[in-house]
Amino acid sequence: MSDTSPGGTSPEGAPPGGAPDGGRAPDEGSAQEVPVSDGPVGTPPGAALRAGTSLDELERRAAARRDRPEYGHDALITCDRLVRVFTTDGVEVQALQGLDLLVREGELMALVGASGSGKSTLMNILAGLDEPTAGAARVAGRDLLAMGAAQRLAYRREVVGFVWQQTARNLMPFLTTAQNIALPMQLKGPGGRRARAHRAERTGMLLDLLEVSDCRDRTPQQMSGGQQQRVAIAVALANEPSVLLADEPTGELDSATGEQIFAAFRAANERLGTTIVIVTHDQKVATEVRRTVAIRDGRTSSEVLRRTEVDAATGQESQVAREYAMLDRAGRLQLPQEYTEALHMEHRVLLELAPDHIEVRPDDAGHA
Ligand SMILES: Nc1ncnc2c1ncn2[C@@H]1O[C@H](COP(=O)(O)OP(=O)(O)OP(=O)(O)O)[C@@H](O)[C@H]1O
Ligand SMILES: [Mg+2]
Which of 282 and 104 is assigned the larger pLDDT? Predict the structure, then answer.
């Protein structure tokens, strides 16, 4: 099939004009596939058809799109355009507005953002406690929108562990530390001598890892807030979850105790390999992880990556932090408000493609 048929239907039956305004992109990455030579950046795929792009070329692009791995295929946590709308007394609150997030297996990362930006809403969805209104969420191969009640319960017991801000909420008040840690394991499986031996061994290992062996036979009210939170981490790790989620785990603690809690998360991540996502307002915690993702208005807006660099001349190590803006799957980018205000950018801007970057300039035509 080498003859061209401009004006024919686009591959895979997609509308030639691309995504309808404000709607979802027809499929991933179409915005990146705009042929640059055909016009200014942003030329819709339909323009390429009208300009006489060969059918061979269109077929090649469609095949490339089909062969491309699925979004988030190698991530442990995938949030794909997650939406959560709450309706109370007829008033709608859009807590998540198309949030994208990928977390790799073995990561220890922080989520930050202003109050009300949607952090807890996201954590509750990932914990299997709440369901999104739209979008997709997968954790360790489980589709969070397709789980039945029994699967959801098993997911909460075995795949994710959760640590809440309120220390009292994490533990059974009438059980000792050792009993609190053993409880999730008892709920998960049948008894028997081997199961009991495994539980005792794992409880001992977790008491040791979280440095709370001296609290083994105490109930929560006989422990400090910091000790309770470390026991809470042990409880959350009892069933060897793939992911540990923590929502403001140091929020009720002073900064020195908060640092100990963070050290406990780091130990769990390094020694057990558990993937950990921590929501925090604590600047210190946020700067101690390799990756911090910021949420703004229900979307991931920016990301800071930190790495250690060694000076070739002196051999001295230093931490280098770099902030990135997030580019979503439809090609949308949120420019920082201070940048757009500094150059009086509003309503529309000019884009130009350079060999290794894209220029964003103020609209020079004035306001039409
Ligand atoms: N169950 C609910 N019913 C109605 N609205 C809700 C509900 N839960 C959250 N919201 C609203 O959704 C938005 C996001 O709330 P969320 O709790 O996710 O924010 P947050 O980022 O965790 O804030 P904070 O830092 O204060 O904990 C807020 O406007 C909140 O009022
Ligand atoms: Mg919250």
Answer: 104
pLDDT per residue as tens digits for the range 228-250: 999 999 999 999 999 999 999 98
Handedness of CA 352, 32, 296, 102 (dihedral sign): negative
Q: Are 306 and 290 in contact (CB under 8 A)?
A: yes
Q: Once rounded to an integer, what is the mean pLDDT over residues 261-268?
A: 92
Q: Which residues line ion ligand 2, judged by CB < 5 Å? A: 120
113 in ligand 1 pocket by Cβ < 6 Å? yes
CA-to-CA distance for 138 and 79, rounded, in angstroms?
7
Question: CB neighbours (10 Å) of residue 86?
Answer: 13
Q: Which of 51-60, 92-101, 259-268, 285-294 has the lowest mean pLDDT?
A: 51-60
Buried b (16+ CB within 10 A) or exposed e, 94-126: ebbbbbbbbbeeebbbbbbbeeebbbbbbbbbb
Give 71 Cα–ligand 2 centroid separation in angstroms. Answer: 27
Q: Write out the two tokens for 219.
A: 């109930």
